[in-house]
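note to self — DONT lose this again. spent like an hour looking for the file last time. sequence + predicted structure for the chain T wanted, 434 res
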Amino acid sequence: MKYLKIKVLILVMLCSSIAMPQQTPANKQTKDIAIMGGTAHIGNGTVIENSIIVISDGKIKTIGNADTTPITLQAMDVIDAKGKDVYPGFIATNTSLGLIEVDAVRASSDKSEIGGLIPNVRSQIAYNAESKVVESMRPNGVLIAQVAPGGGRIAGKSSIMQLDAWNWEDATIKANDGIHLNWPSSFSRGRRWLGEPSGLKPNSDYADQIKEVADFISESKAYLNGNRAVKNLLFLAMEGLFNGTENLYIHVDDEKGITDAVNFAKANDIKNMVVIGGYHAFKVANLLKNNNIPVLLTDTHELPSLEDDDYDLPYKNPKLLADAGVLVGIQNGEPANFQTRNLPFYAGQVVGQGMDKEEALKLITSNTAKILGIDKQLGTLETGKDATLFISEGDALDMRTNKLTHAFINGREISLETHQTELWKRYSDKYKNQ
């Protein structure tokens, strides 16, 4: 009994620490704001020196050169951004933000559900807006995230959320933007513990695994084209793929897998397909370009996957695809949530491989917004778009100079304090006078 009480106490303490809320979400904008003198990186390749940006009712009302744009600043809150840089909010894709709080605590994970073909699972309603992990993204400029489920062959639907909200309803920008399909691997590794040779070998179940998905899609079409007398949630969830309102996000890395996935989508009349991962997508860049299929590449801070790959392949991968004319963005690869906050530095890595800095910025702003279908409201600093942006003391793609002073989501100035910045301040003060 004594040990049981101790275990219960530990569990209560752990749950209490997980449940501590994030910073209180900002109030709705009530007064126009003018950001003056900053270098505005529009997100489409354009840069405006000495810019003026006017935010009104959560939207960008005016943007231009401060010397040539006539503006009456009376009754506005004016932010002096001289010597600083202004960017559109960065967009993270394929994340489990708000779905996993502590990897080692199963009760804090809502990323995956039981089942292999579960397109009706929605990440949106499982999203925890008060996650400590979510708030830790904002100081690096990550203000928008595509929250995606995982597990199973068809994992479910992702939704796009803003990262300063009371609940999932407030956070939602675009619900159910697409379905995630984990493409089967055409190769598998030998299981040494069963006496199999180590190394790669053809996956003998590859064709059957693809057929399973193809049969499910055929059954879905038959149901949707029928009288639907009996409600089938699995088949109903597939409708957006056939009418073009949702993307099919296929998680696949190898050359054969990508080629097969493209042909599969075409054969099954999938309107909009996106490759997620795409490690060897550069090998089939023409196929992707000719079929208007974008790629959300795994992050650049990785080692080569295969021993005969170029040592710098992960670093230069985005540039290889962009140079080939493929619409490309960067995602964090989802090994852990903490890596999502490094999103701007993945783009900065590509600058070191020869990509223009403003082109690299597109990888996490305008390109990503286009891929997700939210480019009419986000991704660039343009008149009429949502005022989701931030001010940095320096280059936001460089971890040495990315230091935010202000950040806005829909014109609301949000807090940049997190439990991590609180700890930093606490322990910085501890040794000041010693």
